[in-house]
Structures are given as structure tokens and as C-alpha cells.
């Protein structure tokens, strides 16, 4: 991947494409979910962090309703649209995300004018790091400030959710954009998906002599596919049979009784959600009391639960996790929706090269496509750059 453009370079590129300087440049990060998978739609807990990979947009509002969009990636050329006639099902490729945000703001009753926008991003796409929300959060931050809309962060969280759900057609929750908008360097974001309360939790891996590696298996996933929908359906069925509003309301102590009430597959889906919620709470407790080096076993247990109970892993993810752990990672797990995407490995800095080599070697020996392995740091949320 080519080096990301900094704010000055992006503004200069904007000027040469659109003929004058942008009003400003904003950025928003992708995210890694440290722990808490498939808990969001069960009104449970998640613990993502914003990463030091961002989408950046240079934007200028226009006096008319015209919209012109260009990205530094691909060869799609300029996309034009009209703020007066945004409609579902009309946008293609990455332009779904900025247009979806503008559409969602209109649905909220805000007047949306036209704009010119140039996008650059170094968030790997389709790797489970939420490159789509990085774009949406950069765009909504820019629009909010330039238009004087005065949206609170939570308004922006809900508007980007609406863009993803109703315009893009991806049934996602609020985790990704919450991390992208609210993240802070050296911290993870503890999010209660029931009441949407948030708390920053210290997660300074580097300060503890650790690195957080992302292992992108390059196996493609799609949230819209049947696996995701069937897991949601199993959770809904489990909650209904157990007589609770959401699986959030089921505790570890309820599992024994639940096993007698549910069919075996639904029971295992429920057990994943219940134990995963517990692991998030324990991870938060350990980060606040002891530090990042203590959470490895919880990451490992999370992976085992997704592999065996929720059944959303795949051979490449399992291999990445196994190879990383046997080369000295303190803990490793798949992250994101599953069926591909990325794993994370919390690794002592001294073992980083060994872990990288072990994973690469294991993939080559298995005949898999070479993975991309890179470090991520817990980084700041969306902000204006220029
Ligand atoms: P994720 O959000 O997990 O990365 P999605 O499928 O939700 O995966 O979003 C990926 C889509 O976002 C791509 O198909 C593309 O349309 C768009 N996209 C985001 N970043 C980039 C990029 N740097 N280059 C090209 N397309 C991108
Ligand atoms: Mg996405």
C-alpha cells in the first residue's frame, strides 16, 4: 500500500482536481475490536479501539446541490451526484459511504448542500478493520463542522449507523463508528450496547513492552452473507426461548438451565455470547487493575469460543492464532464478524519478529495466500487536520 497522503498533500491534490482549496481536511480511524464479538446486537459489551490507520477527506461545501467525489485509490474517476436526489440503491463502490452519510443526515431532517470531496485511506479494506466506517466518520465530522449542524457525537454515531444499515445495506451496530469517533490514544473504548454508555479504558500496549499485531488473512468476508444472519437469528431464538429481552440478560449461572431448554446448536451460540460478555468485563477489569500483559488468556478463550461455539472462524484464522501463540504471543483471537478477515495477536515486542515469521511460514506451508501482518496502536478518534 502506498504511503498515506498527509493533510497538506491531500489539500494540494484537492486543489489541482477541483480548482480551489478545500475548506478543511478531516480524518477518522478504522478500529480493531480487542474483545467482545457478536455481543453488540445482543445488547452486550464490546471493547474496540481506534487504530493508527485512517481515512482522510478534504472537503469543500458548494453553494449548489452538486456533489463531486474522488478517491486516491482505484481508477474509478470522478463520481457526480445531486444532494437533491440521493436515493438508496443508486450509489456504487466506496461512494456509498459518503453519499450514505449525506442521505442519512437528510433523513434526520438536516438540509444537506452539495460538496466536493477527495478521499485517501490507509485502512485496509474488507479486513474487518472497518474501512467503511472510517470513511463515514471522516465525512460526517467534516460535514458537521462545515455546515454548522452542531451534531453531538452520539447523533453522528446514529446517523452513520443509519447510513450503513439503510443506504449501504449492511446490518451493523454502533461499535465501529463509536470507536472511530470516540477513540483516544493509549485507550480502548468500553461500550455497553444496551444503554450505549461508553468509558475509555487504558490500553497502552507499547508502554507495557507489547505490540498488537493484526494478521489479515486476506480471506474475504461479507456481513450480508448467510452466516452472519443465521447467527443473529440463533441469538434471537435463544433469547425468546429463555424469555429475556436480549442475551445480555443471561448470566453464566443461567447456562446450565439453558442447556436443557435449547437445541444443542442454539445453546452453543448462546453460550458464546454469555461467556464473551463475561470476558469483556474481565478484560476491562484487568486493563484497569493490572495492565495489558494480563489479558492474553481471555483473548485465547474468546477465539476458542468463536471457533467451537459460535462457529464463525475459518482454517486460516485458526492457523494464524495457533502459529502466533506457539511463537510467543500472549494471546490471539480472530476479530470482526468472522468467516475471514483478520486475527489479532498481543505479543511481547521481543517476540514480534518470531511471531511474524511463524505465521508467514505456517501459511506458506498450508498453501494459503500470504497474510498481511502489521502493527496497530490505540490511536485518537476522528479529528480535523487542517
Ligand atoms: P470493512 O469496513 O470491514 O473494511 P466493508 O465491506 O464494510 O469492509 O467496506 C469495504 C468497502 O469500503 C470496499 O468495498 C470499498 O468500497 C470501500 N473502501 C474503503 N476503503 C477503501 C480503500 N482504501 N480503497 C478502496 N475502497 C475502499
Ligand atoms: Mg465495514
Largest sheet: 8 strands, mixed
The succession of helices and strands, N to C, reads HEEEEHEHHHEEEHHHHHEEHEE
Amount of beta strand: 15-25%
| Shape, per Cα inertia axes | globular
| Overall number of domains | 2
Number of helices: 11
Secondary-structure content class: alpha+beta
Portion in helices: 40-55%
Bound molecules: adenosine-5'-diphosphate, magnesium ion
CATH architecture verdict of the largest domain: 2-Layer Sandwich
Radius of gyration over alpha carbons?
A: 21 Å
CATH topology of the largest domain: Ribosomal Protein S5, domain 2
**Unreliable runs, pLDDT <50, ≥5 residues?**
none
CATH top level of the largest domain is Alpha Beta
Task: Provide an overview of this structure.
By secondary structure, this protein is of the alpha+beta class. It has two domains: 194 residues, 2-Layer Sandwich (Ribosomal Protein S5, domain 2), CATH 3.30.230; 172 residues, Alpha-Beta Plaits, CATH 3.30.70. 41% of the residues lie in helices and 22% in strands. The chain contains eleven helices and twelve strands. Strands 1, 2, 3, 4, 5, 6, 7 and 12 form an eight-stranded mixed beta sheet that branches. Strands 9-10-8-11 form a four-stranded antiparallel beta sheet. A hairpin with a 7-residue loop joins β3 and β4. It is globular. Magnesium ion binds next to α3.
Amino acid at each position: 500500500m502506498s504511503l498515506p497522503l498527509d493533510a497538506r498533500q491531500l489539500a494540494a491534490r484537492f486543489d489541482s482536481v477541483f480548482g480551489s482549496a478545500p475548506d478543511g481536511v478531516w480524518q477518522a480511524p478504522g478500529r480493531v475490536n480487542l474483545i467482545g464479538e457478536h455481543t453488540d446486537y445482543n445488547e452486550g459489551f464490546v471493547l474496540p479501539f481506534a487504530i493508527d490507520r485512517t481515512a482522510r477527506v478534504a472537503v469543500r461545501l458548494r453553494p449548489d446541490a452538486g456533489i463531486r467525489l474522488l478517491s486516491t485509490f482505484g481508477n474509478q474517476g470522478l463520481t457526480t451526484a445531486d444532494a437533491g436526489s440521493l436515493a438508496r440503491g443508486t450509489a456504487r463502490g466506496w461512494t456509498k459511504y459518503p453519499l450514505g452519510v449525506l442521505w442519512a443526515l437528510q433523513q434526520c431532517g438536516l438540509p444537506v448542500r452539495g460538496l466536493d470531496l477527495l478521499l485517501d485511506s490507509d485502512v485496509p479494506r474488507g479486513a474487518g478493520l472497518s474501512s467503511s466506517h472510517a470513511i463515514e466518520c471522516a465525512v460526517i465530522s467534516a460535514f458537521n463542522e462545515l455546515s454548522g449542524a452542531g451534531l453531538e457525537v452520539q447523533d453522528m454515531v446514529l446517523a452513520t449507523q443509519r447510513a450503513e444499515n439503510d443506504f449501504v445495506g449492511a446490518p451493523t451496530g454502533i461499535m465501529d463508528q463509536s470507536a472511530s469517533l470516540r477513540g483516544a490514544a493509549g485507550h480502548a473504548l468500553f461500550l455497553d450496547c444496551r444503554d450505549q454508555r461508553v468509558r475509555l479504558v487504558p490500553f497502552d500496549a507499547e508502554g507495557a513492552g507489547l505490540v498488537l499485531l493484526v494478521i489479515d488473512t486476506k480471506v474475504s468476508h461479507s456481513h450480508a452473507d448467510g452466516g452472519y444472519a443465521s447467527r443473529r437469528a440463533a441469538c434471537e431464538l435463544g433469547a425468546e426461548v429463555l424469555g429475556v429481552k436480549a442475551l445480555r440478560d443471561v448470566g453464566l449461572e443461567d447456562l446450565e438451565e439453558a442447556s436443557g431448554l435449547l437445541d444443542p446448536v442454539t445453546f452453543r451460540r448462546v453460550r458464546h455470547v454469555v461467556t464473551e460478555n463475561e470476558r469483556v468485563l474481565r478484560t476491562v477489569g484487568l486493563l484497569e487493575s493490572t495492565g495489558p500483559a494480563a489479558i492474553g488468556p481471555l483473548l485465547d478463550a474468546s477465539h476458542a469460543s468463536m471457533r467451537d461455539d459460535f462457529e464463525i472462524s475459518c482454517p486460516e484464522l485458526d492457523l494464524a492464532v495457533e502459529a502466533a501463540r506457539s511463537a510467543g504471543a500472549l494471546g490471539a483471537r480472530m476479530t470482526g464478524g468472522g468467516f475471514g478477515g483478520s486475527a489479532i495477536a498481543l505479543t511481547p515486542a521481543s517476540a514480534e519478529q518470531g511471531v511474524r515469521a511463524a505465521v508467514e511460514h505456517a501459511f506458506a506451508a498450508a498453501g494459503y495466500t500470504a497474510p498481511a501482518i502489521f502493527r496497530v496502536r490505540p490511536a485518537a478518534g476522528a479529528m480535523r487536520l487542517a
